[in-house]
Amino acid sequence: MRFKPDIGFFKSVTDNFNPEMLTKIITEGTTQIEVPIPDENSSFPPSSVSVFYNPEMQLNRDISVAAIACFVKDNPEYTYLDALSASGIRGLRIANEVGLATTMSDWEEESVGLIEKNIILNSLENCTAIKRNANVVMLDNSFDIIDLDPFGTPAPFLDAACRSARKLLCVTATDTAPLCGAHKKAGIRRYGAVPLKTDYYPEMGVRILIGAIARTLARSDKAMTPLLSYASQHYYRVFVEVKKNVVSADECLKQMGFVSQCFKCGEMHKEFGLAVHMDKECPECGEKTTIAGPLWLGSLHDRDFCDCVLAECEKREFTRAVKLIRLCRDELDIPLHYDYHKLCKSLGISARRTDELISVLRERGFGASRTHFSGVSFKTDAPLGEIKRIVMGLD
């Protein structure tokens, strides 16, 4: 059933919209939207206006349109909540380009007024805009798909979102420093896990975020399956399928674990479980190790889902998204990656082409692939000692 808010929680367009706000009409995807004109002299122009709109996040929104279109192919009646709408561009695009019944909520009156104006601009009949606290909206109602795209951390909204989401949860986190260990204490407070700043820090952040989602869903007897997870620019983004089932929730938690990292020789070890024993000394060099977790050690992507998203991106001509989705799909399905250039620097040699290293690893019988995390990162199931011997042989 489509969510219908109490009449007291929204006003008319004329009541909400601020006529003094300077705006312009832009087109994103196939959706027109009136957005505020930012101060070009600001250090971060989107934050200089009362209604937040960041054009740099179009790639994020393009992928969201493609991913959600894939997820709802056989279920066009699913309901969608853009919980922190700001300008409303994300929810408007889902309503217009995917066709879902969409609810957009924001606590700022000017945001709601602009969203309502844009609903009329696009002649959308499947949209509702409400002025209400996002957590209250989610705790009072259930939605098939919930999208959290906050300015900063999603942590304050995860509990409510995990309770409310029935089928799919989409989460963006722009607080990459706490998630990857650069701001370690903040990461512990927000996500209940110890992050580490390592050579594979983007993947560390993504896995800490997914782990937090998995544990939060489990409190509501729900399980999750990551369909697509990636790091791009200044944010992390994950799409997880949600299932209400106690047994599945217990099985899901078995994919949680810890990572032990030696910062001297580079050895890393993984251990599944929420209560594990890990050696305090590196078995290779004897140095003290540092532990990160709990974090998600399972798959980051579903290959079939990525194939569908890739086809959607190509059909919709989301050209920037195609390369990223293809890299995600083709990544070796194991946790953690290596930074080839940093590995070479630690060995005191110059790096060759990453593809050359991957080819040699495969010739030696190991699994190996590029990753989307950076242009010089790779994944392999080869032991670190063997990787170093191969790298030294390429010099």
CATH fourth-tier homologous superfamily of the largest domain = Vaccinia Virus protein VP39
Low-confidence stretches: 1-15, 42-50
Main-sheet strand order equals 5-4-3-6-7-9-8
- Number of helices in the DSSP assignment: 15
Helical fraction equals 25-40%
For the record, the CATH architecture of the largest domain stands as: 3-Layer(aba) Sandwich
Strand content: 15-25%
* Helix and strand run: HEEHEHEHEHEHEHHHEEHEEEHHEHHEEH
Specify the overall morphology: globular
> Quaternary arrangement of the chains shown?
single chain
| Ends distance | 63 Å
Which features characterize this protein?
alpha/beta; 7-stranded mixed sheet; 23% strand; 2 domains; Rossmann fold; Phenylalanyl-tRNA Synthetase, Chain B, domain 1; 395 residues
In short:
The protein is of the alpha/beta class and 395 residues long. The chain has helices spanning 13-16, 58-71, 89-98, 109-121, 134-140, 155-164, 176-180, 184-191, 201-218, 246-253, 303-315, 319-330, 340-347, 354-363, 384-394, and strands at residues 23-28, 31-36, 79-82, 101-106, 127-131, 143-148, 165-173, 222-232, 235-244, 256-261, 268-272, 290-296, 338-339, 368-370, 377-380.
